[in-house]
Amino acid sequence: MTTSDNPQPGELLQPEDFDELDAILDDLRERDEEIPQWEFCEGFLAALVCCRRPIPAAEYLPVLLGMDDAGAVAPFADAAQRERFLALWTRRWQEVQTALDAEVENLEDEAAYQPEVMDVRGAIAALSPAERAELGDEVPAFAQVWALGFMFAVENWPEEWAPPRDKEAAEWLDASLQAMVAMTEDDTAPPEISPFGDDTPPSVSVERLNAFGDAIWAVYDLREIWRSIGPRVETVRKETTPGRNDLCYCGSGKKYKKCHGAT
Length: 263
Known about the structure:
This protein has 263 residues and is mainly α. The protein has helices at 15-31, 38-50, 57-65, 79-101, 120-125, 129-135, 144-156, 167-183, 206-229. The chain is globular. The N and C termini lie far apart (52 Å).
């Protein structure tokens, strides 16, 4: 089947497709409690799309979902569930890549990248006091889990995110990554707005929403940086050749010029 090693265009994911992804991840979490939420996967996927080197699925899926004792990606219930997850993942990969390669003037553009993030604090604020009390206090800030997923990928392949030699590009890279790092922090400012409409209580600060916009533009910049620079070129190190009067490296006891150096 087609995997995200070679993503192909397809229909845009619909709300029910994201619901299905959530359901699959919930099922996986029954067997491994460390399986992340989709918002984390969304950030992880965006980082892979932006990465300097194309990371194959065989390399990144174990990092995201873990491995079983046999060395296979775990813990899918069966091959059909794994194939369905990869099919949806591939379609989302293509959506993100297409959006990041599009020329957009503002984030209101229909073609712009819109991360799939949740306003958990807004959803909780709409609950009754008793329901809120049951959930505890540790609730992620708006888009925080998305940013954590993005930086998780960066941290797992640090060599692909090392600063380029060009000073201007290196500064551009650092500023973009710092915008993502800022989103991994908590939103401690007073909540003033609801990012998804007026039918829920205010849950996000204006500062946070502005930082979210900066982070999305940072993803565009990171995609452009590595596309313009290209993949890393591995340094080829040539073995030191012995001097003509040195002993030959083969261990014959002869001088290099009388042994392998004579060929």
